[in-house]
Amino acid sequence: MAAALPTIAITNGLVFDGTGAPPREADVLIEGERVTRIAPRGALGAGAAARTIDATGQWVTPGFLDTHTHYDAEVALAPALTESVRHGVTTVVIGSCSISFVTAPPEDCADLFTRVEAVPRELVLPLLRQVKTWDDPAGYRRWIDGHALGPNVASFLGHSDLRARAMGLSASVSGRPPTADEQATMSRLLEAGLDAGFLGLSAMTNPWDRLDGDRAWSRSLPSYYARGRERRALQAILRRRGAIHQTAPNLVTRVNILGIALASTGLFRKRLRTTVIAMMDLKADRYVRGLAGAVAWLTNRLLRGSLKWQSPPVPFDVYYDGMDSVLFEEFPAGQAVRNLAYDQGKRRELLASPAYRATFRKELRKRLAPRVWHRDLGDAEILAAPDPTLVGKTFAQVAAARGADPIDTFLDLMIEHDRALRWHTCLANDRPATLAKIMRHPDTQMSFADSGAHLRNMAFYNFPLRMLKRVRDAAAAGAPIMPIERAIHRLTGELADWHGLDAGHLAEGRRADVAVIDPTRLDDRVEGLRFAPFPGVDGFERLVNDGDAVRQVVIAGRLVIDDARPLPALGQTRTGRFLDATRR
To answer: CA 325, 331, 332, 334 torsion: positive or negative?
Structure first.
């Protein structure tokens, strides 16, 4: 029998309950895995618990939710998920964007995951071969339930995962529809996933999310090839079961967002809860934010749907090593370089080709085509290079100094330095006033951190803290965005309630997932980034967020972060658990 958890009292703090209600000065008593009492300040008395945390001047909140992650690999390798937990996240959602590690063989799961999510295949494939003993949702659930999870985990079942299992990887990306038996297999596995507590189905309709490996290299993810009949059959199961559909529109045409929205509607039928990536203020296409809002308004207000846009509440900064980024997949000339990712010589030969350079120039300068990357080489700063004279300059500035064309200069530098050239740009959410509108929008979810993926390209592990900083600073400047309690609600209870998860609330009788935050430490450090070793992999580093505003974190009644430092129990003792989804 496991030893009883020591009782914890969090005293003298400003307590937010995750509902959006105003905070109150109170003491919180935690016994076992649950909050047993929230009392007026000082009412608990001395000696009420084995451990007392003095939260004077600090905020006591429910643990945050990160509802769009790709922690599928890291949860097997380093289940503490420390980079999220140390910033107050106590519940994560995996299995996003049609990719999960549930039903397909290890090689298929690795090929689905590693290129699009920018996680080394040489890490993921051996890991899956070692640990993956399951091939159905119940088996995955049993494995998770026996794992030393740090935070709580909820999961989608990935449509690409189902397709690869039912059809075989090659057939799943061939363009042919599934046979009746293959469709029945996908339906059976989806029903089994819902029976096992999964949130629903994640899908993908964007063509520039592509496969790794040598069997179907550079084909789009299997979910992309599904057509209406197949999608409608799976959505009918989700609708009947009250489960969730998570997806992304085709970012090349964007037209199919109308079909996604219509599938969510509830006129004369049960509505389908649908969450879509992403509402952002794109530099490349400023109209996207307004269009997304209009689609959600029409779907939810007039057609009785339940469509939510995922929205990162921070500037969308992206970092590149050469041309290693999924953003180059959005146009054919960029994809051609990515297709040669494992052959440096051929990549350089391609970049030097006059015919290729003419095509690259034409595509980069194309202004009317929908895009995510703004492709402005004057808005792309070089951060590191073998030639130190390049550092701190944009590609356009380097070109001007050389008396050369910016696009030619960009390609020349890629030939010269390849992945040793590190550079940065901001893709979206660069205008504070517009970002504030996104944070307030009723049809957005504060989400889309992609935690656990794009390990060298971006880091949004601490997005809840960065949102709270923005909200607090805006109020201090006389231009309030929303009350702090509403911001905390958006990051906790609102997300938990919509997803049907037992999380996001701080109340008597609820599981004790709690963060203690020092608001004076919500300073410029939370905007900083640095490299840190990736757990369990020698010599590999990823981007992480700075800051130490979160002083303590409790998960299921166990203290796992103290004085902003992880305790040994995190990742060694099972604190989190697989959260079953509540159907609606």
So the answer is: negative
Q: Is 157 helix (H, G, I), strand (E, B) or coil?
A: strand
Give tens-digit pLDDT for 491-512: 999 999 999 999 999 999 999 9
Helix (H, G, I), strand (E, B) or coil at 201: strand
* C-alpha–C-alpha distance, residues 500 and 268, integer Å: 23
- CA 554 from centre of chain: 22
- pLDDT tens-digit map of 127-181: 999 999 999 999 999 999 999 999 999 999 999 999 999 999 999 999 999 999 9
- What does the alpha-carbon distance between residue 487 and residue 136 come to, in Å, rounded to a whole number? 38
Cβ count near 42 (within 10 Å): 12
Buried b (16+ CB within 10 A) or exposed e, 516-546: bbbbebbeeebbeeeeeebbebeeeebbbbe
* Other beta carbons within 10 Å of 439: 22
Contacts of 527 by beta carbon, 8 Å cutoff, 6+ apart: 466, 469, 546
Tokens 């370089």 found at: 337
- For the CA atoms of 183, 185, 187, 192, the dihedral, rounded to the nearest 10 degrees, stands at -170
SS3 126: helix
